[in-house]
């Protein structure tokens, strides 16, 4: 799928995937509790999946860009959720990294099996990577470029 934005076009790979199967049913909230898929993501039309780590300078640069796009979509009334998938090397780095993410976001718990599943599903080979899963099960593998280029306007590129 080619996505055309105002100044650029992006080639994005699209796969079929079921968000619940790929992401699992355990999500860490900023309240320190584990939430089920339905509690954390059940009302979302689109789920963004951020693959990132605290030790990665490009990840630290992309995080605020994604947060701004997310806040723009939320303000527009869109049902968007973000899940953070860590590549941090230890739980303390993960905890510190997640503490600095948007308070509305959830994370896959450090060391859980779903991390390997979702990385494999989206073919993650480097970070930061940003993927989007729509309610109908379309998985967009390469969402970082459109978000960096167009911010909140890019969300509509990830069609259901």
Structural class: alpha+beta
Unreliably modeled segments: 3-7
Number of extended strands? 10
Largest sheet: 6 strands, mixed
Distance between the termini: 13 Å
Order of strands side by side in the largest beta sheet? 3-10-9-6-7-8
Shape: globular
Give the fraction of residues assigned to helices. Answer: 25-40%
What does this protein look like?
The chain has 160 residues and is an alpha+beta fold. It has 6 helices and 10 strands; from the N terminus they run βββαββαβαβαβαββα. It has a 6-stranded mixed β-sheet with strand order 3-10-9-6-7-8, sandwiched between helices. The two termini are 13 Å apart.
Based on the model shown, name its key terms.
single chain, 160 residues, alpha+beta, six-stranded mixed beta sheet, two-stranded antiparallel ribbon, 6 helices, 10 strands, 34% helix, 24% strand, globular
Give the gist of this structure:
Helices cover 34% and strands 24% of the residues.
Helices and strands in order:
Layout lengths: L1 E3 L4 E3 L2 E3 L2 H5 L3 E2 L5 E2 L1 H5 L4 E7 L4 H19 L4 E7 L4 H9 L6 E2 L5 H9 L7 E6 L3 E3 L3 H7 L10
Parallel strand pairs: 6-7, 7-8
Antiparallel strand pairs: 1-2, 3-10, 4-5, 6-9, 9-10
